[in-house]
Here is the input.
Amino acid sequence: MKPLRSAAAAVRWCGRTFAQSLKGLGRGVKAAIGWLRKWAGKILSSLKSGRVLLSIAALAVAFVIGIVVSQAWSSDSSDDTPASSAGPSDAETEPTSSPSEPDDESSSTDPPTTPEATPASDPGDRSSANYPPDNADADPVPTPAPVFVVLDQQPQSYQEALEDAARLSRDIVWPSACMSPLPHPDLLPNAPRTYRSGIHQGVDFRCFARGHPAVAALDGRAVLVVGNYDDPDSDKRDLLLDVAAQLEATPPYTLLTLYGNHVVIDHGVVPDVGHVVTIYAHLESVDPDIRVGEAVQAGQTVGEIGNRGTHAAANGDFYTDPHLHWELHIDNQYLGAGLTAAETRFVYTTLFAEAS
Ligand SMILES: [Zn+2]
Here is the structure.
């Protein structure tokens, strides 16, 4: 029975305690409501004064400004975050460093050391001013080297021209069986050509009639073939030559168009001579077997000699003064450049001394 009594007493005690706590809570709530009423009244009364309204407005403006500034700052820092995380920069620097490592490991010969030396010498080397020093390290793609076409290099000396002519004379054949130009300085290189403010770069083989073949002087390969040349009328040709007069020199492409139908044969690099090229100009027509890239044998017909590209052809006369204009170039310079008329004549006489 005692446990039952004590249990009942415990239930009663719990009930009293709960009731008392409810009463206490009610008193607390009442006190809180009273406190809130009290302060609300004070606030409302103080709101009636303009100072508080102004201060609240100032606080609100300051709050808005603070939000805007904080957002702007957070956006800037978010932009910086990917860059400062070094993701992309690491990706860029790793490829540049990794190719250099195999080079370093492969050998210690000149090719690997040269790329290394260039960035290392960037800070103090003025010769590297053409290279972008910063990008050179980051950009794995090499900068293309500029292409230069050297047309005005130092001409050969008379002795060098003679030696080259002698070496080529062993294999060369006459490009035309028409009149020999050798006794006539005006038909040889370096003769003035006043109508185009230039000098003659080739040899003219005068034929006096149509139907004569031009033949390849050496073995080679056709590199340029113009067989459908359409002569301009005389007035338009003169307009081109007016530019030459203003320049006091024949522009290179004007010189090309004055060739009319023409063929250029590349003879490759001839030992102890250099890169040899021959040109066959003023052709009436090009032989159908002459095609760009095709091999050409010495003595093989290149085309029929005519006068295309000349003043007569510009007037529609394709029969006056047919002749082969022939040039021989060594390393982008016509043979005999810069020589006197007498020297030029002797060089070309040497060139054809053994020609068949
Ligand atoms: Zn000529």
